[in-house]
């Protein structure tokens, strides 16, 4: 992952949220700062859920902070999009969850390379400016230390 020597930029990707709205990211990020959780596997759901309550509280305190979940799948699965997205929609029953979940079908190898993601074994969390500049990143299950670092990064860019 990024060692701090160069600035990473979120790659241009497109997808639809689970309510059917098309997004081209990072251009369509709706907030000044955005927390983006990237997952590659269905079994990553529990890792994502470890972050949800804490992120919801953080976003509630700062309206200039957005949150997106990006399940990233190979472009080869695009013909099955209706079935895959339908399965995710069935698993996420609240409107907020469906709104923030944008399924991306892309060249995963290039996507991971551009974000310096070494593998698909866990989730990756990014703090991204609307222009695509990545300010902070981490991976895996939420811990108190990770959450504190994320809060610090948010406060540096958007004082609460």
Any overview of this molecule?
Helices cover 35% and strands 27% of the residues. The protein is of the alpha/beta class. It is globular, with a radius of gyration of 15 Å. The two termini are 28 Å apart. The model has no long low-confidence stretch (mean pLDDT 87). It is built from five helices and seven strands. The longest helix has 17 residues, at 45-61. Strand 3 (33-39), helix 1 and strand 4 (65-74) form a beta-alpha-beta unit. It has a seven-stranded mixed sheet with strand order 2-1-5-4-3-6-7.
Strand order of the largest sheet: 2-1-5-4-3-6-7
- Helix fraction bin: 25-40%
Low-confidence stretches: none
- Give the beta-strand count: 7
Rounded to an integer in angstroms, the radius of gyration calculated over CA atoms is 15 Å
Shape: globular
Task: Count the DSSP helices.
Answer: 5
**Termini distance?**
28 Å
Global mean pLDDT: 87
Q: What's the short version?
A:
With 160 residues, the protein is an alpha/beta fold. Helices cover 35% and strands 27% of the residues.
Per-chain topology:
Elements: E1 13-17, E2 22-25, E3 33-39, H1 45-61, E4 65-74, H2 81-91, H3 95-100, E5 102-106, H4 108-115, E6 124-129, E7 134-139, H5 144-157
Keywords for this entry:
single chain; 160 residues; alpha/beta; seven-stranded mixed sheet; 5 helices
């Amino acid at each position: 992952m990024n060692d701090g020597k160069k600035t990473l930029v979120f790659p241009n990707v497109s997808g639809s949220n689970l309510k059917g709205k098309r997004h081209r990211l990072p251009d369509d990020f709706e907030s000044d700062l955005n927390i983006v959780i990237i997952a590659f596997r269905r079994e990553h759901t529990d890792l994502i859920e470890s972050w949800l309550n804490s992120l919801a509280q953080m976003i509630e305190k700062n309206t200039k902070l957005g949150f997106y979940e990006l399940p990233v799948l190979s472009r080869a699965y695009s013909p099955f999009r209706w079935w895959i997205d339908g399965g995710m929609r069935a698993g996420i029953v609240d409107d907020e969850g469906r709104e923030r979940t944008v399924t991306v079908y892309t060249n995963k190898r290039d996507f991971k390379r551009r974000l310096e993601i070494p593998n698909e074994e866990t989730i990756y969390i990014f703090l991204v400016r609307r222009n695509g500049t990545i300010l902070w990143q981490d991976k895996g299950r939420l811990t108190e230390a990770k959450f504190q670092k994320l809060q610090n990064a948010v406060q540096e860019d958007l004082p609460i």
